[in-house]
């Protein structure tokens, strides 16, 4: 029975493995619409997953990401909270519902409209030719396109891409308060697509989490409603740096690693997990780190 539950969890995780970006809807008459006047928020919880896994308190395959606050996860990992981690976010695109007929079939979904953030798109290899459509000088991309490009870029050259994306968020982005004693930090934000980068880590964190996209709002796991208050649980590796880890070189006076990234061999960090742990499913919308809450992105046939 335990093995069956594990298989079901993996199947659900696979369904969610399309990112912290928005899901598509199956029917035009039932697709929920976004309330443009509603505020959104991002909550991040940081835990020492290295130690939690070693202690048997955390199983990367035991949760399915939903983007929702999960007391069970927080209670289970409370003793592994990591304090002093700083994340910086940059709003890179608008979020828009899209309704169109393709090959005689109506499709409903979500697109992300960029009219700037050229440095971010360039860093992950996205060009105007990759746009699903263009209107009024703005290029609209699907979540699949953005997630796949980010994953490919980080896989090809994690060091360069991380450095470029970190530079991008520091140029106009907003630094969140450092995670507190419970490993938590949060920020109220307007709706849109955000790039989130881990910009400062404590001394014992030996690899930074890969940059990731978060859609605010994002859909619930069943695609029936919008979640405006998204929760993610990114992972880092802790302990002593070794030659197979991506580490920060410089240290500032506060004892935090805050220098450039040196990818000696391969990145070893696992990405954000969101509400129900997404584990290693999310290697991608953000690249090396699994992102916990992945929505299904792109377009789906209606009906």
List the helices and strands and how they pair.
Elements (H helix, E strand, L loop, with lengths): L1 H15 L23 E6 L3 H6 L16 H7 L8 E17 L2 E10 L3 H6 L9 E3 L2 E4 L1 H14 L1 H13 L3 E2 L8 E6 L2 E9 L4 E3 L4 E5 L1 E2 L6 E2 L1 E5 L3 E2 L7 E3 L12 E3 L9 E2 L24 E3 L2
Parallel strand pairs: 1-13
Antiparallel strand pairs: 1-7, 2-3, 2-6, 2-8, 3-5, 3-18, 4-5, 8-10, 9-14, 11-12, 13-17, 15-16
Task: Describe the structure in your own words.
This protein has six helices and 18 strands. Residues 2-19, 22-29 and 240-303 have low confidence and may be disordered. The protein is α+β, with helices and mostly antiparallel strands and 303 residues long. It has helices at 2-16, 49-54, 71-77, 118-123, 143-156, 158-170; strands at 40-45, 86-102, 105-114, 133-135, 138-141, 174-175, 184-189, 192-200, 205-207, 212-216, 218-219, 226-227, 229-233, 237-238, 246-248, 261-263, 273-274, 299-301. Helix 5 (143-156) packs across helix 6 (158-170). Strands 2, 3, 4, 5, 6, 8, 10 and 18 form an eight-stranded antiparallel sheet that branches. The two termini are 35 Å apart. Helices cover 20% and strands 29% of the residues.
Tally of alpha and pi helices: 6
Work out the helicity level. 10-25%
Mean pLDDT: 73
- Class computed from helices, strands and strand pairing: alpha+beta
